């Protein structure tokens, strides 16, 4: 992607990436993003689930949501995603950092009106959260599809920013007898917990290998 | 806190909380927030570390950061935080949800200029990331403090939104032989990994019990 004045970071520009592969891999790993927009001149943001397919990021929401109604007009939005990999513990507080992979995307919504395309996007969003589950679930009804707004955001003005590796302490601090290194931040899916209406239902294959 | 038109959610208003205890507990558990503002009429947002003390949320950043220079002017910001506890897997895609605890805060920056207060806030931010570590680290220098901007945001217009519990499937779906329940989302600190400059330094007490 072409860097723009908005996607070139003012700090640590060497940590920025503009290739689709890096941007897409972060978007595909993250389950949630934060969508920001301007309403009546004021900033407003909301965390939500999303999915990417080709060069479009998709969100969904209730047709009754005030926020969705604003952004479906096509006003400018800024979407950010952050994956945190480790706390970077240096010998000085000033050199502390975080190993992260983040994406910033500037775009505007295109409302998906076509019925079959809406259903397809809802499948992508559902299967991002629980892979391979769509065909197992009770099929969506027309009424449910109608109650849901689906928005697509072209990924054209975006960049990734990443930090990896060990602390970068000042040279004069390196010999200090102070521990420095990484504290990994772990995240993942745990063991499924059935509700009262699934006591006699076997855990399906696609949930068995999730954790 | 007093609910306002901006902090009352347009959907699932019963999931909203306005008491300090709920809002503060989410802010204190989350390591990162997303700060949004309006620059030249456009939305802009950035994920960053933060700490809360009493009724103020504190951020820090480089004095050279374009974003920090904008928000230190006192323009309106929207700060969001989300903790995700579980994926809520229902018998229909439409009833899928997420168990989360989020906060939305509208505020404006107050720049902390007083030297000792700046150092104190930097201690809070550092010790949120690595509790009890401040006194162990190489002390901050005056030059490092000068290179850092510290901003405080009063927590007055804020709300929390939380979802807990099992899926809420439609009554007519409850007897379907489809598995429903929760997939916990786990996150936490892993086992510390020393860098090359700490091979002979014992892991300090405050890092030993972190994972």
Automatic annotation (TrEMBL), chains A, B:
Species in which this protein is naturally found: Runella aurantiaca
InterPro entries per UniProt: Pyridox_Oxase-rel, Split_barrel_FMN-bd
Matching SUPFAM superfamilies: FMN-binding split barrel (SSF50475)
Classification via Pfam families: Pyridox_ox_2
Domain of life according to the entry: Bacteria
Protein name: Pyridoxamine 5'-phosphate oxidase family protein
């Amino acid at each position: 992607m072409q860097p723009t004045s908005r996607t070139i970071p003012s700090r640590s520009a060497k940590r920025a990436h503009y290739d689709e592969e890096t941007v897409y891999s972060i978007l595909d790993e993250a389950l949630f993003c934060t969508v920001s927009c301007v309403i009546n001149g004021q900033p407003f943001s909301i965390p939500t689930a999303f999915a990417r397919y080709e060069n479009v990021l998709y969100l969904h929401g209730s047709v009754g949501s005030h926020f969705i109604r604003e952004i479906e007009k096509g006003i400018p939005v800024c979407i950010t995603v952050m994956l945190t990999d480790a706390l970077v513990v240096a010998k000085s507080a000033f050199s502390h950092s975080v190993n992260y992979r983040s994406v910033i995307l500037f775009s505007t919504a295109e409302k998906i009106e076509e019925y079959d395309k809406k259903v397809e996007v809802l499948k992508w969003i559902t299967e991002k959260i629980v892979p391979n589950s769509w065909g197992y679930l009770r099929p969506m009804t027309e009424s449910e599809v109608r109650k849901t707004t689906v928005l697509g955001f072209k990924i054209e003005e975006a960049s990734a920013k990443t930090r990896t590796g060990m602390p970068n302490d000042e040279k004069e601090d390196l010999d200090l007898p102070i521990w420095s290194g990484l504290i990994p931040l772990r995240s993942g899916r745990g063991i499924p917990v059935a509700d009262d209406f699934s006591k006699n239902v076997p855990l399906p294959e696609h949930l068995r290998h999730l954790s």
